[in-house]
Amino acid sequence: MSVRVGSPVAGRAVALAAVPDPVFSQAMVGPGVAVEPVRSKSDVVSPLDGTVVTLHPHAFVVANGEGAAVLVHLGIDTVKRKGEGFELHVVKGEQVQAGQKIVTWDPAEVEAAGFAPICPVIALDASADALGDLAQDVDVAANDALFDWSR
Amino acid sequence: MADEKAQKILEALGGADNIVEIEPCITRLRCELNDGSVVDEKALKGLGAHGVMRSGNVVQVVVGPEADTIASDIEDLL
Lengths: 151, 78
Fold this sequence. Notes:
Low-confidence stretches of chain A: none
Order of helices and strands of chain B: HEEHEEH
Oligomer: heterodimer
Low-confidence stretches of chain B: none
Number of helices of chain B: 3
Largest interface: A-B, 16 and 14 residues
Distance between the termini of chain B: 17 Å
Distance between the termini of chain A: 6 Å
CATH architecture of chain B: 2-Layer Sandwich
Strand content of chain A: 35-45%
Strand order of the largest sheet of chain A: 9-5-6-7-11-3-2-13
Number of domains of chain A: 1
CATH architecture of chain A: Distorted Sandwich
CATH topology of chain B: Gyrase A, domain 2
Shape of chain A: globular
Mean pLDDT of chain A: 96
Radius of gyration of chain A: 14 Å
CATH superfamily of chain A: Glucose Permease (Domain IIA)
Number of helices of chain A: 2
């Protein structure tokens, strides 16, 4: 079976290699797609149906019942923002649906504070060939498909 | 079992005395150490680390999404 992974944000889907952090650009924790977000205050949505297994203001992981876990990281090194500018709408352990609002943030504010707001969306511990139909160099709306993860 | 892994990671980082601060960030442990040169990168990779990035006495160990759990297990050992 395969899992459709949607974009958490509106923006432009690009290759992970464009992310200025080796953990993501070298796919150390898994393959995926990055989204260069539209620079305006917006909601970040869940990329799939599942449970919020990890939740930080600047990053979260949603895992489904089959063990497919997707990491969304909102900007690079944004842990240093200590949660400032991120408004959470769910709690850890909550069941969520694809497209459900998780966080509200402002990529323009993150960028103005000196951080790259690009959002890596990672299929954790997947092999690169498990991902298909990767959105690449196209504009996406929140919840548009980014890739299919066959499992 | 989990504690044992935390213990071994702690040893590979030079032991409790070498730790200034450990902060988990979803996929990695950001470790501020007294002496970054003693880190046993090979041992960390043997313990499942996907990568180790060093910048002087700040060492980032990429452990995947277990980072939060491992960091709190290590905190318990300090």
